[in-house]
Design goal:
The protein is mainly beta. It is built from 3 helices and 13 strands; from the N terminus they run βββββαββααββββββ. It is 9% helix and 16% strand.
Length: 235
């Protein structure tokens, strides 16, 4: 790494993507690092990160990590990518509550994220994060309601729509103004009750448990994505 930085203390970004490192050594000279990409290596430990207290974005995806030791030393961490490692113990994530600035976490592809409902215990455990695996955490997620829902309700739809930056312009009869709807990770079993969204064009229902589709005949513009079931159904 000496060839890249004559003065390590000036480095704020470092990309060590895909170098197949099994271990990594960093010194306190990298204390000003703000963004570090260590994805697609073969790391089993990350003790060296203790020397980088100012990291705000850390990508450790596609490694061989089984624990999250030393990550909690990064008190300024805001974005953390841990997807596709070997983390199997959910309790290991509890200490992330000490990372008060952490807002964006990716954990999919680990043994703890195999089950469809894996989001709910993580959302309940980590109260600071706002985005989990690229899906915004809603009020319904926080209250644990989605864990028990098997059917689509207007309350669920409204909560999802509120996360859209355009929602302020959808006052009044907001139902007829919804064109795109993401209801992934909602534990749904039955796909129904969308007939009031007559202008809905795109609906995403990935990572659910859908077994039945009904009452969609009025949605003539609707293209439904059921990626988790391995098919695309266009109504």
């Amino acid at each position: 790494m000496q060839q890249y930085y004559q003065n390590y203390k000036e480095a704020t970004f470092m990309n060590l993507y895909g170098l197949l490192f099994q271990t990594i050594q960093l010194s306190q000279q990298f204390e000003n690092l703000n963004v570090l990409n260590l994805s697609f290596n073969k790391l089993t430990g990350i003790r060296a990160l203790q020397c980088c207290p100012n990291i705000a974005k850390l990508d450790l995806s596609y490694n061989l990590l089984t624990n999250v030791d030393y990550i909690t030393d990064l008190k300024k961490l805001e974005v953390l990518y841990l997807h596709f490692n070997n983390i199997a113990n959910l309790k290991l994530l509890e200490d992330f509550n000490y990372l008060t600035h952490l807002k964006d976490l990716r954990i999919r592809g680990n043994p703890i994220a195999i089950e469809i409902g894996y989001r709910y215990p993580i959302v309940q455990m980590l109260t600071n994060i706002r985005i989990l695996d690229q899906v915004v955490i809603t009020k319904l997620d926080r209250e644990g309601l989605n864990q028990n829902y098997n059917r689509i309700t207007m309350e669920m739809i409204l909560e999802k729509v509120k996360n859209n930056s355009k929602f302020e312009g959808m006052q009044g009869n907001w139902k007829v103004k919804v064109e795109i709807l993401d209801l992934s990770h909602c534990n749904l079993v039955t796909l129904e009750n969308l007939y009031e969204l007559e202008n809905l064009r795109i609906a995403i229902f990935s990572n659910n448990k859908i077994k039945k589709i009904e009452n969609l005949i009025n949605n003539t513009k609707l293209g439904i994505s059921l990626h988790f079931l391995g098919l695309i159904l266009l109504i």
